[in-house]
Amino acid sequence: MAEAEKRIDIPKAEGDQRMDNELLKALKRGDAGTVERFFSREAVSSEAEGGRRSWWGVTKGGNSALHIAAGFGHFELAKLIYDVDSSLLTVPNAAGETPLHCAARAGADQIVSLFISEARRCEEEVLRATDREGKTALHAAAEEGHAAAARALMSADPVLAAIVDHNGVSPLYAAVLSESLEVVQVLTESRADGGDAPEASYAGPNGQTALHAAAYRNPEIINKLLEWKPALATKVDNSGSTFLHYLAATTRTDAVQQLLKCVDTSTAYLSDCQGYFPIHVAASVGRDSIALVLIDHCNDMDELVDKEGRNFLHIAAQFDEPAIVELVCRQPLLAKMMNARDYKGNTPLHLAAKSKNQRIVSLLSENKRVHHSIINKDGLAPIDLAITQQKPGLVGAQVS
């Protein structure tokens, strides 16, 4: 990682005593008067012991007074505490979160701006501080969908959008998961200073991109991401799956149509590590509406086979998805699929019989275009497989 993009991991202070319970209550309420009186009462004795840190104390989770005030969004109280002890801004809690993380997660954009403006001398240390999961304050704001806090952080340090956590999650990916279109817009806007800061990362876990995550979420987020970076449509995760593979498992025909019509039909011809094309994915889970859209935009979907030589009808027959089988049976132009053989010589009827899928066996056996006598490489016809499976109804369906 470039020097400008490095994470700052702040060491946790040790030896802090537990925070007074009355002080904790006042901090949560935002009761600045009580907090001031507490500090005034304790200041003389605490400084005699070597500094303020001993009388501020921390909670069981390692949260300082500044963490509490920031996390509850008490602006005036946070300012008071910072003015008394500015060093607390860089001290993490037990989870590795600084007060800036807490303010960002709470959507306390005024406090976020305060911490940024008050910490110019150690800006990078404060802004790029990460918790124990490697998350910055921008991650925290994105996870909770707080656009104002995210905007303040991005204005101060655009590099934050390029930092991923220990699981490979970028702030943009986190924003998509939170379904916050506003935060997505903030992160994909042009760089605040017009300088050389890196572009926002779109990374997610297991090789996913923010667009992969958007497949099951707000369609406006999909539009924004594709407008920002159309090339995301062809990016694959660790399993070789594209955004369209993900969409194929949903019922979102509108998103599939938009992708194929406005972006690129080439994604329909990209296979994953199993050799599955998006049409295979749709067939495996019975998404006939998605399959129809794919067939309409790409008329040779019937020719695509996976690593075992199976077309999407083979897949539907094996996984017991009658909606897909019925779709093929209604389409004369797809008739050749019905007797197509995989690399072991199996037709869809072979696989349906082998998988004991009686409904599929019946559908295929009743179709006049289906040949019942095709022999696979083991020398078996579909009826032979039905007999070996010994499931009532399978043999009858074929004989009839």
UniProtKB/TrEMBL annotation:
PROSITE patterns xrefs: ANK_REP_REGION, ANK_REPEAT
Keyword Membrane on entry: no
Keywords: ANK repeat, Repeat
Top-level lineage group: Eukaryota
Sequence ranges of the ANK repeats: 133-155, 167-193, 344-364
Pfam families, per database record: Ank, Ank_2
Gene3D superfamilies referenced in this protein's UniProt entry, alphabetically: Ankyrin repeat-containing domain
GO cellular component, one term: plasma membrane
TM region positions: none
Keyword check for Repeat: yes
PANTHER family found in the cross-reference section: ANKYRIN REPEAT-CONTAINING PROTEIN ITN1-LIKE ISOFORM X1, PROTEIN PHOSPHATASE 1 REGULATORY SUBUNIT
Name the UniProt record assigns to this protein: Uncharacterized protein
Protein source organism: Ananas comosus var. bracteatus
